[in-house]
Amino acid sequence: MKKTISILTAVTILGLTAACSGGGNANNGAGAGNTANDAPSNTSADNKPSGAPKKVELKIFLGGLDRFREQFDGYFEKFAEKEKAEKNIEVTFNSEYPGADNAPQILKTRLATGDVPDVFSLHAGNDMPTFYKAGYLTDLSDQPLAGKLIDGIKDLVSMDGKVVAVPMESLSWGYLYNKKIFADLGITPPNTLTEMKAVVQKLKDNKVTPFLLSYKESWIPQLFLPLTVGGLVNSSHPDFLDKMNSDQGSFADIKEMFDIIDLVNANGTDRAFEKGNDDGAADFANGKAAMWVQGTWDADSILKMNDKAEFGVAPLPINDDPASLRINVSVSTALSVPPTSKNKEVAIDLLNFILDDQASNDLYQSLKFNPVSKNHTFKPYPWVEDAAVYVNKGQSYRDPAIPSAVKDESGKALQSYFDKKLSKEDVIKQLDKTWKEANAAAAK
């Protein structure tokens, strides 16, 4: 999601599929249960490390997580200490943190060409089905980490009943709102589009800009897609995804998705194309606008800019149908190990350490992520509790399964739509075309 939400392109999907069509499925989970035999023993008879340490360099690819570099690098060093003490393996790290816009294409190209990292991040909702089919995900079901996952989270990182990734960002999101501004003006999160229009007007009457716009990075306007589609397929258009996946549907069927997009675009901050995620987080943290269509993955960035910022999360109203008002629940960023990793034993040790019973509490809390392990004891953050109110009432949905190519195209198309270079009809045509192309690529 960053980020995950995270946002993917499909530029190299055809190459990926072709590269893996000669039996890639047979590699799913290959060797995952036999990692203890992958390397020569480096312990003495009493099971203590002995002799010269074995040296291993792990290639780590964490796309879209550059804002958390300090936390991850520090945690990796803790793992290195543990691996040295327990297995006499001296681990160093070659870590990359490419931006969210470029990371998916870079990763797919590397996997397709054999330049395989030992551990990589992926979007659990967008990427897992394709990567699993291509044979790029190790079966982790017999690892200690699998038994620790909260049941609802475990399903989101599993394929065919196999755990194939470690969840990092477990999300319940919609849009962010400034709690102080809302409280000062006596505003509560609106339940319908009509109520949202009234909120917008009240904010403007009080000289407050309703929405923060930060469209420099295409993955940010792309966020409208899962929020609008998710609300509509769980209310008035339950067959939309099935129709699109069978080349029988069109975004014209849910053209009402533009109603909330138009409202936001017409009542936002200036210089939208000069503001990326970091600038947006700074502006929102400092009260430049009352609302931001953005996920809770930006909590850490916001609080780094202003540790006194008070913000909440609420579902985005897309029409006046109460059934459409729902929180998006997903796992965006997850970590996986490819079966072809040259250091698979150590890489899987690292994934297990990501959910270490003690150390992972501090890691996830420092990242401002939700608990994902049964052994996570830290108190959820206020914005998590905000979302839980809706989730506990049944007002939520699992992040819709939209092809990553369509999500990527929607971000670019909505940038052009905001800039008046594309009409609604143009956006619809481009999204329909991209979805059909994704269907064709997946069928090969």
> What is the molecular shape?
globular
CATH fold description of the largest domain? D-Maltodextrin-Binding Protein, domain 2
List segments where confidence is low: pLDDT < 50 over at least 5 consecutive residues.
1-41
CATH class membership of the largest domain: Alpha Beta
The helix fraction, in percent, is: 40-55%
Commentary on this structure:
There is one protein chain. The chain is of the alpha/beta class and about 450 residues long. It folds into 2 domains: about 210 residues, 3-Layer(aba) Sandwich (D-Maltodextrin-Binding Protein, domain 2); about 200 residues, D-Maltodextrin-Binding Protein, domain 2 (3-Layer(aba) Sandwich), CATH 3.40.190. The chain contains 19 helices and 14 strands. The strands form 4 sheets. The chain has a 5-stranded mixed beta sheet. Strands 9-10-8-11 form a 4-stranded mixed beta sheet. It has a 3-stranded mixed beta sheet with strand order 7-12-14, sandwiched between helices. Helix 2 packs parallel to helix 4, helix 3 crosses helix 15 and helix 13 packs across helix 14. The longest helix is centred in the C-terminal third of the chain and has 20 residues. The N terminus is likely disordered. It is found in: Cell envelope.
